[in-house]
Amino acid sequence: PRLLLSLGGFALLLLPPGAAEFSPSLDSDFTFTLPAGRKECFYQPMRKDASLELEYQVLDGAGLDVDFHLLSPKGETLVFDERKSDGVHTVETEDGDYMFCFDNTFSTISEKVIFFELILDNMGEDGQEQEDWKKYVTGTDLLDMKLEDILESINSVKARLSKSVQIQTLLRAFEARDRNIQESNFDRVNFWSMVNLGVMVVVSAVQVYMLKSLFEDKRKSRT
């Protein structure tokens, strides 16, 4: 049986291990942990003459790299990134399910934290909304601004707001990756500082012992 879960404002359909499917959405982002030696694949249903834009980043994990595959509904490889930390890809789509996979099988120890965002354009909803608006465009000759102009302005504001949300999401992803790197560097500096301190204490103790041994009177007292 399949289980439908709601995550981050969109639906995630659990399939057999290593696969998942998203319900249609104009803009979706997701962050997940990819274990070492594992490969995770996701499916996105698309319409003909639509546009699929996918952006991904590796936020945490040794090397900050992952293999990425994007396949068409016919099983053709459209994109293949090998050992990349981030990527942006846009494809014109046809009817069917597009599959994209993140592959961490080359790593046997380190898991990866991966963020990706899907941006879908020309999915048919905007066109239907415009057709609905046109039903009300009658007798507007006496208006200074026609309803078509209002609709155009609304669509322009909507597009800019969507772009702003997208940029903010990417900035949060960059900030998360930089924070993980800084925390890793902080732990590394603390570790080696403690090692150096331990070496200094040992060297100091050895030097004190050697100096004391130089000034000790080792001659035996005569009776």
From TrEMBL:
Top-level taxon in the UniProt lineage: Eukaryota
Segments forming domain GOLD: 39-120
Signal peptide span: 1-20
Compartments, record wording: Endoplasmic reticulum membrane; Endoplasmic reticulum-Golgi intermediate compartment membrane; Golgi apparatus, cis-Golgi network membrane; Membrane
Key words, A-Z: Endoplasmic reticulum, Membrane, Signal, Transmembrane, Transmembrane helix
One Pfam family hit: EMP24_GP25L
GO cellular component, one term: endoplasmic reticulum membrane
PROSITE patterns: GOLD (PS50866)
Transmembrane segments annotated in the record for this chain: 191-211
Membrane topology category: Single-pass type I membrane protein
Protein family (similarity comment): Belongs to the EMP24/GP25L family.
Protein name: TMED5 protein
Species of provenance: Pterocles burchelli
Encoding gene, per UniProt annotation: Tmed5
